[in-house]
Write a structure and sequence with these properties.
Radius of gyration: 20 Å
Low-confidence stretches: 1-20
Shape: globular
Distance between the termini: 59 Å
Order of helices and strands: HHHHHHEHHHEH
Mean pLDDT: 85
Number of helices: 10
Number of strands: 2
C-alpha cells in the first residue's frame, strides 16, 4: 500500500495517471490538519491545572514529536506515504482522542462533585468538547479509504471499502450543476475539513447527518463520540442549573 502510494504520487506530480486509472483529484493540503492538531494540543495544554496535570505535557510532547516528521514528509500536500508515516498519522490522532477521553472522565468526576471552581470547569468542558471534535475528525480522516494519500493517488477500483458515504458519492445522477461536483464525475474525495464537519455535526446532533458511516469501526467511533458529547453536555447542564439554584 505504501509503495503503491509512492508510485502513484510520482505519477500525479508528473501529470500522469495512477496505475490502471486516471485520477484528477488534487492532493490534499497539509495545513488544515496541522492547524487542527495544534489547536487540539493548545486546548489540552491550557486545561485547568487540576485536570491531568503533569501528564498533559507528556501528551503534548508526544503529539509534537509525531507531527514534526509527518510535516517533513509532506510539507505542502499529501503526495508521499510510508508505513511509518501512516502509523504516525494514525498514532497522532489516537493519542489526542485517548488522552481527551481520560480528561473527559476526570472532568465529569469534578463536575459531579460540584467543585467550587465551577466556572473554570465549565470552560474546561468546552475545551474538552472542541478537542474531542478535532480528535475524532483526525481519526475519521486517517481511516477512511486508506487515508489522505490513497484517496487521491490510488485508482478507485483498488481502494479499500469506504468507511463513510458522503453526499458527493451519490450525486452523479442529479441535476447538472450538482452532478458536476460528484465523486463519479469530478473525482471528488473528502478532505480533513469534510471529516471535521462530520465530527462536529455528530457531536452536536448525536447522530449522523448527511454523511453515513458504513463500516463497523466507523459506527463504533461515531457512537463513542456521540456518547461522550452527550454525557458531557448532560453533566454541564446539570452543573449550570445547580449553580443558578
Amino acid at each position: 500500500m505504501a509503495d503503491h502510494a509512492k508510485t502513484s504520487s510520482k505519477d500525479a506530480e508528473e501529470g500522469g495517471a495512477g496505475a490502471g486509472e486516471s485520477r484528477t483529484a488534487r492532493p490534499e493540503l497539509r495545513w488544515p490538519v496541522v492547524v487542527g492538531v495544534l489547536i487540539a494540543l493548545a486546548l489540552y495544554t491550557f486545561l485547568p491545572s487540576g485536570l491531568f496535570a503533569a501528564q498533559r505535557y507528556v501528551v503534548v510532547a508526544i503529539g509534537l514529536l509525531l507531527l514534526i516528521p509527518l510535516v517533513a514528509i509532506n510539507p505542502h500536500h499529501y503526495v508521499k506515504e510510508t508505513r511509518l508515516s501512516r502509523l504516525g498519522e494514525l498514532g497522532l490522532a489516537l493519542v489526542i482522542v485517548a488522552a481527551n477521553q481520560l480528561t473527559l472522565v476526570l472532568l465529569i468526576m469534578q463536575l459531579v462533585q460540584k467543585s467550587t471552581e465551577g466556572s473554570g470547569l465549565l470552560l474546561a468542558a468546552l475545551q474538552v468538547w472542541v478537542t474531542n471534535v478535532i480528535g475524532f475528525a483526525l481519526v475519521f480522516w486517517c481511516i477512511d479509504r486508506a487515508g489522505p494519500v490513497a484517496r487521491t493517488m490510488v485508482p478507485r477500483a483498488e481502494m479499500p471499502a469506504a468507511d463513510f458515504r458522503f453526499p458527493q458519492d451519490e450525486d452523479e445522477d442529479t441535476v447538472v450543476e450538482v452532478a458536476k461536483g460528484s465523486s463519479a464525475k469530478s473525482d471528488w474525495v473528502p478532505a480533513f475539513v469534510d471529516y471535521l464537519y462530520v465530527s462536529l455535526s455528530n457531536s452536536m446532533a448525536f447522530s449522523a447527518t448527511d454523511t453515513m458511516p458504513l463500516s463497523t469501526r466507523a459506527k463504533a467511533l461515531m457512537a463513542l463520540e456521540s456518547f461522550a458529547g452527550f454525557v458531557l453536555l448532560a453533566v454541564v447542564i446539570a452543573q449550570a442549573v445547580s449553580q443558578i439554584g
